[in-house]
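Input structure tokens:
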């Protein structure tokens, strides 16, 4: 049975317990304050979204169980209360690409061409080893789509290989 609570919102709706006559009110979960919760999570040493999801699902026995007073959806609970992203929450410092400020396409292409790289593989190796500035994207073809990106040969400034016939 599904009860559409929205329909009864301004017509006396209190709770499902009241509706069913049990008198039970929903338990409102009390979460730790943001800084306290974040400090607890950072001590676990989780490295990324996958590890966070595993921890929340109880699939990281070496890390213990997530306490009930730490939300599995901290971005919702702590929105406007200190939430800056998962990298801040976990303590990795990682910022999601969609939240980064990258060089303009022309600036990035000019910078990339000065590197004198001859392949996408070389660019990715530099990126993976953190030898590129933080305002250079990991995937320029996505970042600069519809902003001037043609292909990696153009972006990096090398002559594309001719396909064998």
């Amino acid at each position: 049975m599904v009860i559409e609570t929205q329909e009864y919102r301004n017509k006396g709706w209190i709770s499902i317990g009241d509706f069913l006559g049990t008198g039970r009110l929903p338990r409102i979960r009390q979460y730790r304050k943001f800084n306290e919760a974040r400090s607890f999570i950072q001590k676990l040493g989780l490295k990324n979204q996958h590890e966070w999801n595993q921890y929340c699902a109880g699939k990281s026995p070496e890390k213990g169980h997530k306490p009930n007073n730490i939300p599995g959806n901290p971005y919702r609970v702590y929105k406007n209360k200190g939430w800056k992203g998962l990298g801040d929450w976990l303590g990795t410092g990682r910022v999601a690409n969609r939240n980064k400020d990258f060089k303009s396409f022309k600036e990035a292409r000019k910078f990339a061409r000065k590197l004198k790289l001859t392949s996408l593989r070389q660019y990715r190796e530099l990126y993976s080893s953190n030898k590129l500035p933080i305002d250079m994207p990991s995937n320029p073809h996505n970042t600069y789509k519809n902003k001037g990106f043609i292909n990696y040969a153009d972006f990096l400034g090398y002559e594309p290989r001719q396909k064998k016939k």
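The mean pLDDT is 87. Residues 38 and 89 are 5 Å apart (CA to CA).
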